[in-house]
Amino acid sequence: MTSDAVVPGDSPFRSERSVRDEAPQFVLPLVVRIERAEPPGRTDALETAARAVLTLLADERARGEGEWARAVRDWQDARIRKVVRRARGAEWRRAEALPGITLTGKAAEVRVFPPVPLDGWPKDLARLQVSGTDLDDPEPPGDAAPGTPVIWFNPGLAMSAGKAMAQAGHGAQLAWWELSERERNAWREAGFPLAVRTATAGRWSELTTSGLPVVRDAGFTEIAPGSATVVADHPALR
Can you tell me which residues the record assigns to a coiled coil (predicted)? Predict the structure, then answer.
């Protein structure tokens, strides 16, 4: 599922919308493993996708003069696009052979790849399906542990698991941008603990006026443009 984030004014990437639109467009590919017999739970997949995005951003290959750094910079200087595709069996094995990072949750497996041009996908990723990422939780997730960063979803929006995985990744990325280097290092060294939960209506109203990072979707798929989809609630940002 494709998802584009509207970059907020307080992000470190402050170029005007028209400039960002005119820049060469890149996309961050994520692939979730969905085997027919044992699909992962929805929340597990969302949390694993968010951690995958953070892991790539923190990777030495994506920073400084690393081999992925130029692609990451180009991607972040344009629209922040993420596309989630699904794979199983041989498809998953071919995806794992490409440069990237695999993150494992409770049962979910998500592989994130360095950004690629919109029209320059590796063939083994381009042939994967975007649809078919509908997932369910076997039981409702419990409350997040105290002190855990939480990516809160808008209770008034319905979206596929693939779309939601991309939105969770957007929320994690906005939190990462807002943290200091010391706070980033602490989060990374802890293994990027986080939770994904859906807020109550009252809680959502509080979150969206709290000053925490809010993802507003560009509106190309599933939901209306400008919709607030998630709020990134990291304790260090309060």
Answer: none
User: What is the token pair recorded at 194?
Assistant: 């986080």
DSSP class of 155 = T
Instruction: Indicate yes or no: pTM above 0.85.
Output: yes
Sign of the dihedral through C-alpha 140, 101, 99, 94: negative
Exposure class string for 128-158: b at 16+ Cβ within 10 A, else e: beeeebebeeeeebeebeeeebbbbbbeebe
Reduced to 3 states, what is the DSSP secondary structure of residue 151? strand
DSSP codes joined into one string, 69-110:
HHHHHHHHHS-EEEEEEEE-HHHHHHHHTSS-EEEE-SS-EE
Q: Which of these, 153, 152, 135, 165, lies nearest to 2 by C-alpha position?
A: 165
What are the structure tokens assigned to 130, written together? Answer: 């975007």
| Pairing of β 2-6 and β 214-217 | antiparallel
26 and 176 Cβ atoms separated by less than 8 Å: no
